[in-house]
Amino acid sequence: MSGAGVPLRELGLVLLVAAAITYLATGVVRSALVRTGRVAEIRQRDVHTQPTPSVGGLAMFTGFAGAYLLAQQLPALTRGFAPLTPEMTAVFFGGLAILAVGIVDDLYELGALTKLFGQFAAAAVMSVLGIAFTVFYVPFGEGTTLILDQIQGMVLSAIFTVLLINAVNFVDGIDGLAAGLGMIAGTAILIYSLSVLHDQGGAVSAYPPAIICALLVGICAGFLPHNFEPARIFMGDSGAMLIGLLLSAASISASGKINMSLYGAADLVALVSPIIVVLAAIALPVLDLVWAVVRRTARGQSPFQADAGHIHHRLLRLGHTHRRTVLVLYMWVSAVAFGAVSFSVIPFRFAVGFTLVALVTAFLLTLVPLAKGKIGPTGASSSSKSSRPVG
C-alpha cells in the first residue's frame, strides 16, 4: 500500500485489469454479433452511416466482473467487501440486473415504460442490498446534517440512480461519447474518493467508492478504443445504463463519507458536500436529459420519444466533425468535473484558477467552427468535409 491507508497500486491494478478484459471481451462480443447478424440498423436520428454491432455492454460487464473478482482477492482491498460492508455486493447485483434489462432492450427494443420499470427494479436491487443515501451535509451557514431513514434513503437512491441511467443513455448518441464521459466522471469521483481515503486513514466505508470508480474507469477505457469514431461496436443500452448505474453507485457511496470532526470550520474540504462534487462530474448528461424532457414535452411529445436535439447533435450542426464534437464534450465535462473536485484537493485560489482556465478553454474549443467557415443551411460548416447534417 502507498500513502496513508490509500491502496493506489492495487486500485491501479484493478483499473488496468478491467480495461484489459473489457478490451479483449469487446472483440469477442463484436465477432459473435457480426456472425449472428446482430447489428444496429440506421435510424433517422443516428449519426453513423453503417450498420454496426451493439450490445457492447456485455463485454463491459465482463471486464467489470473479472476485475471485481480480482479486487475481492487483493488483501489491500478486501476491507471494501462483505462482510465488512455490503456495498460492493450491492453494486455487482445491481449491475447484473441493469445488464439483463439492457441486453433485452438492445436485442428486442423494450417499450419505454417496460424499460423504465426494469431500471427501477435494478436500482431497487442495488439500494436494498446496501447502496443508499444515509447522510447529506449542507455546507451553508453553520452547516446542517440531514439524516435519512432506511426507506427514505432507498427511495431517493432509486430515483437518483434511474435519473443517471437515463442521463447517460440519452447522451449515448455519437461514437465514443458515453464511454469517454463515463471515464472522465469516474476519474473525477475516484480522485475525490482517494482524498477521503487518505484523510480518514483507510476507513472501511471509504473503500467502496474508490473501487467502484476504478472498475468504471477501467471498463470505459477498455471499451473506448473499439468505440471511438469510427466505431466498430456500440455499447448499446446495456453499456450506457451500466455506466449510469455505476456512476450512481459511486456517487451514493461517496456521499456522507467525510468525517466532519476531522476538519476545521474554515477548511474548504469540510464545506464541499460529496454530492455536489459527483453531481458536477455528471452535470452534462443530466442537463442534456432535463433539456430533452422539457423540449419534448413542450412539443406535445412523450419525454421518452427519441429526437436529434441532444447537445452532440447541436455541435454537429454547428460545424464540428464527429471526433471534434466528442473532444469538445470531453473538455466541458472535464472542466466541470475536475474543477469541482479541485476545490477538495488543492488550495482555493489554485482551484479557482484551474477551473476558470478549463472553462474558458472548453468555451473557445466550442467556437472553433465559427471561425473556420460559414454555417450552411443544414447547420454544417462548409469547411468541415466530414461533418454531415443530423436528423
UniProtKB/TrEMBL annotation:
Residues given in the record as Mg(2+) binding sites: N169, D237
The protein's required cofactors: Mg(2+)
Keywords: Cell membrane, Magnesium, Membrane, Metal-binding, Transferase, Transmembrane, Transmembrane helix
Any GO BP annotation: cell wall macromolecule biosynthetic process
Domain of life from the UniProt record: Bacteria
A Pfam entry, by short name: Glycos_transf_4
Cell compartments where the protein resides: Cell membrane
Keyword Metal-binding: yes
Membrane-traversing stretches: 12-33, 54-71, 91-108, 120-139, 151-170, 177-194, 206-226, 238-256, 268-294, 327-346, 352-371
UniProt entry tagged with the keyword Cell membrane: yes
Membrane topology recorded in Swiss-Prot or TrEMBL: Multi-pass membrane protein
MF annotations from Gene Ontology: metal ion binding; phosphotransferase activity, for other substituted phosphate groups
Primary location: membrane
GO CC annotation: plasma membrane
Protein name: Undecaprenyl/decaprenyl-phosphate alpha-N-acetylglucosaminyl 1-phosphate transferase
Species this protein is from: Corynebacterium lujinxingii
